[in-house]
Design a protein that fits this description.
It contains 18 helices and 23 strands. The strands form 7 sheets. Strands 2, 6, 7, 9, 10 and 11 form a 6-stranded antiparallel sheet that branches. The chain has a 5-stranded antiparallel sheet with strand order 5-4-3-8-12, with no helix packed on it. The longest helix has 40 residues, at 2-41.
C-alpha cells in the first residue's frame, strides 16, 4: 500500500507532463489555424456578392412576402433584375397600397416616407405612379422659420425698378431709395428684407444685372443662397418670389419624409427646387442629423459642400452610423456615391464584405445594401413604351446637375440618383473650382471634392506629410539615452538623429517561454523522483505513518552461561530462503516509467 502511493505520485507527475505537452501542441495548432484564417481573409472572394443575392432570394421566397412597405420597396429595388421575383415583389408592394398611398404596413395609416419608398421602387422598374405622386404633392406646406432676402447686383451704378418703384444700386453695391411695399433695406443696405413672401417682385435695371434669393434660419448666422440665380440684360425684367415648401401629414413638416419624397418626385420629373431651402436650413438640427441629410442633399444638389460633409461623417474610413444602424446608413451613403469613383465608397464596400454573415446576408438591410452598393440593371418591359435615356443620345446625370430646363420627361435612368438630361453638364476642373491637387507627399487641409480631372481636389491647403523614421514606425522612440526600463534597438538607431539612440521597452517574459520553463522543471523533478525513488518511498512511508527509527544502542556482549556438556545440542534448523518482496513493485514502477517516457517521445515527434 505504501509503495503504491509512491507509484501514484510518479503517475501524477507523468500525467502533468503529458498534459502540458498536449496544451502546448494544441496552442501551436490553434495559432497556425488562426494565422491561416487571417491570411485567407485577406483574399477577396469574388463570389460574395452572388452569395448575398442568393441569400436575399432565399429570404424573399417565391411570393416576396413581407409586412413592411419599406422592405417590400427595397426588395423590389434590389431584385428587379429577376423578372419572376420582380413581379412577385411588385405585387407584394402594391398589395399594401390604399387610397394611392402607403403606410408602414398594410394596416397602417398612409405616411409620406412609405409612399416615397413605393414610388421610387415602382419608378425603378418603369412603372408610373401618377396618383401617388399627386398624393405626395398634395402634402405640400409652406416652410416656416426662415428669413428671406433679395439681392440685386450690377457691374456699375444702376437705376432699377421693383414693382414700379425706383431704387439705385450704387457703385459700392449699397441700395439707395425707397423700396416698394413688402421689401425693406437690410444687412447694411446691401440686401432687401422680404417681408411679404407671398408676393411676386418684378425687377428691371438700366444695366446688365443678376438677382438672387438668400435665406437664413431663425437664430442662425449662416446664409444660404438659392440654387437658382437669374440674370437679364439692360431694361429686361425678371420676376422673383419666395418658393419654399415642405411635405407634411399634419400641422408640422416631415423632414425625413420630405428627404425621400424629394428624390422620388425628382425621378418622376417634378420640380423639387422649392423643397431645397427647407431641407438645407434644417439639416444641422440635432433631431435631423440621424437621417444623414448630407447624402440626400448631395443627390439633390450635387454641391461640393454636401459631398465633403458626407465624406467627413464616415467612421474609421469604413462605414456611416448616424442613426445607430450602420447597415442602413452605409447603404444610404453608397446610394449618394453610387455613380462616383470614390475611395470612401470602395472602402465601405470592402468593410461590408468583411462583416457579411456566412449565409451571404447582412445583419439587416441586405436588399438596400445590394441595391446601393452592387446594383443590377432591372428587367424592363419595353411594351410599356418607356424610352431609355442614353439610347436616345441623352445623358443620365445626377439629379442636382441637370437644370430644370434641360430635364427630359418620360425617359428612363436606372439609378435613383440620376435623371435624364438633354445636355451633359460641364464638369469643372480642380483649378476652375479654385482648388489644388496635392502631391503624393502632401495632404489636404480643407475639403476634398470631385473635379473633372481628379477625385481629390483640395479646397484648402496642401501640407507636407511628416513621415516617421524607421525607429518610430516600429513603435520605439529616439532618445539621447535609454532609461533603465528600456533597451536600445540597435538596428533602428541609425534612423534617429545624430547622437540619439532608438529605445524600446524591455520585453517581458512571454507566456510561451514560461510554459517551456515550467515543463523543463517538471521533467527534471520527474527524473529526480525516478533516480531517488527508494528514498522517496521511505520518506513517504515515514510521513504517512509517523514512524521514527529508534536510536542504535551501544553493542554489549551478552553474558555467557555455562552449558552442561551432558546436554546434547539441539539439531540445526535448515536456513530459510530469503524473499525479495520489493522486486515486484520495483519492476512495476520501471515498466510504467518506460511507458510514460515512450508517450513523451511520441508526442515530441
Amino acid at each position: 500500500m505504501k509503495l503504491k502511493k509512491g507509484v501514484n505520485i510518479i503517475k501524477i507527475a507523468g500525467i502533468v507532463v503529458l498534459s502540458l505537452l498536449l496544451i502546448i501542441t494544441l496552442s501551436n495548432l490553434t495559432f497556425a489555424s488562426s494565422h491561416q484564417t487571417a491570411v485567407d481573409s485577406g483574399n477577396e472572394d469574388v463570389n460574395e456578392i452572388d452569395k448575398a443575392y442568393s441569400c436575399l432570394e432565399n429570404e424573399i421566397g417565391d411570393k416576396c412576402e413581407t409586412k413592411s412597405t419599406k422592405q417590400a420597396a427595397f426588395n423590389l429595388l434590389a431584385i428587379s433584375h429577376n423578372s419572376k421575383l420582380q413581379n412577385a415583389c411588385k405585387s407584394s408592394l402594391n398589395g399594401k397600397k390604399k387610397d394611392n398611398c402607403w403606410g408602414e404596413t398594410d394596416t397602417s395609416n398612409c405616411n409620406i416616407k412609405s409612399t416615397a419608398y413605393a414610388v421610387l421602387a415602382l419608378n425603378h422598374i418603369g412603372e408610373k405612379a401618377d396618383n401617388s405622386v399627386k398624393w405626395l404633392l398634395d402634402r405640400k406646406s409652406s416652410a416656416t422659420g426662415l428669413t428671406w432676402y433679395l439681392e440685386i447686383d450690377a457691374v456699375n451704378k444702376s437705376e432699377c425698378t421693383i414693382n414700379g418703384k425706383k431704387v439705385t444700386i450704387e457703385d459700392n453695391k449699397k441700395i439707395s431709395g425707397t423700396p416698394p411695399a413688402g421689401l425693406e433695406k437690410a444687412y447694411n443696405d446691401y440686401w432687401f428684407l422680404i417681408k411679404n413672401i407671398e408676393q411676386n417682385y418684378t425687377i428691371s435695371c438700366d444695366k446688365n444685372f443678376i438677382t438672387a434669393l438668400i435665406y437664413q434660419k431663425l437664430g442662425s448666422n449662416v446664409f444660404h443662397i438659392s440654387s437658382e440665380t437669374k440674370s437679364a440684360s439692360a431694361f429686361e425684367s425678371v420676376s422673383e418670389r419666395v418658393n419654399s415648401y415642405c411635405l407634411s401629414s399634419g400641422a408640422s413638416c416631415d423632414y425625413e419624409g420630405t428627404l425621400w419624397a424629394a428624390i422620388a418626385l425628382a425621378k418622376e420629373d417634378k420640380d423639387i427646387s422649392s423643397f431645397i431651402p427647407y431641407l438645407t436650413s434644417k439639416a444641422d438640427e440635432t433631431e435631423n442629423r440621424k437621417y444623414l441629410p448630407s447624402a440626400f442633399l448631395y443627390i439633390l444638389t450635387g454641391s461640393d459642400e454636401y459631398y465633403s460633409e458626407l465624406i467627413g461623417l464616415q467612421k474609421a474610413n469604413s462605414y456611416w452610423d448616424e442613426s445607430r444602424n450602420k447597415f442602413y446608413d452605409s447603404a444610404l451613403a453608397l446610394l449618394a456615391l453610387q455613380n462616383i469613383n470614390s475611395n470612401e465608397a470602395e472602402n465601405t464596400k470592402k468593410y461590408l464584405l468583411t462583416i457579411q454573415q456566412t449565409s451571404g446576408c447582412w445583419q439587416s438591410d441586405t436588399a438596400f445594401i445590394l441595391y446601393a452598393g452592387w446594383p443590377k440593371s432591372p428587367s424592363i418591359d419595353r411594351r410599356t413604351g418607356i424610352s431609355y435615356c442614353e439610347e436616345n443620345n441623352n445623358f443620365c446625370v445626377s439629379i442636382g446637375n441637370c437644370n430644370l430646363a434641360d430635364k427630359l420627361d418620360n425617359f428612363y435612368c436606372p439609378s435613383s440618383g440620376e435623371v435624364c438630361c438633354k445636355t451633359r453638364p460641364q464638369e469643372l476642373t480642380c483649378s476652375e473650382k479654385s482648388g489644388v491637387i496635392c502631391k503624393e507627399n502632401e495632404e489636404c487641409r480643407g475639403d476634398s471634392v470631385i473635379a473633372s480631372d481628379t477625385n481629390d481636389c483640395c479646397i484648402g491647403d496642401c501640407v507636407e506629410i511628416v513621415t516617421e523614421n524607421e525607429c518610430e514606425k516600429q513603435g520605439f522612440y529616439c532618445r539621447g539615452s535609454c532609461s533603465e526600463a528600456q533597451e536600445e534597438k540597435a538596428s533602428y538607431s541609425s534612423s534617429c538623429s545624430l547622437g540619439q539612440f532608438c529605445c524600446g521597452t524591455k520585453p517581458e517574459a512571454k507566456k510561451g517561454n514560461l510554459l517551456i520553463i515550467l515543463l523543463v522543471i517538471l521533467i527534471f523533478l520527474v527524473i529526480l523522483a525516478i533516480i531517488f525513488r527508494n528514498q522517496l518511498r521511505t520518506w513517504i512511508f515515514k510521513t504517512k505513518t509517523g514512524y521514527k527509527s529508534e536510536p542504535t544502542k551501544p553493542f554489549s556482549r551478552p553474558p555467557v552461561f555455562p552449558i552442561p556438556m551432558s546436554r546434547p545440542f539441539p539439531p540445526r534448523m535448515p536456513a530459510r530462503p530469503q524473499t525479495r518482496t520489493a522486486q515486484g513493485p520495483q519492476r512495476t514502477v520501471d515498466k510504467e516509467f518506460e511507458e510514460t517516457m515512450k508517450k513523451l517521445k511520441e508526442m515530441s515527434k
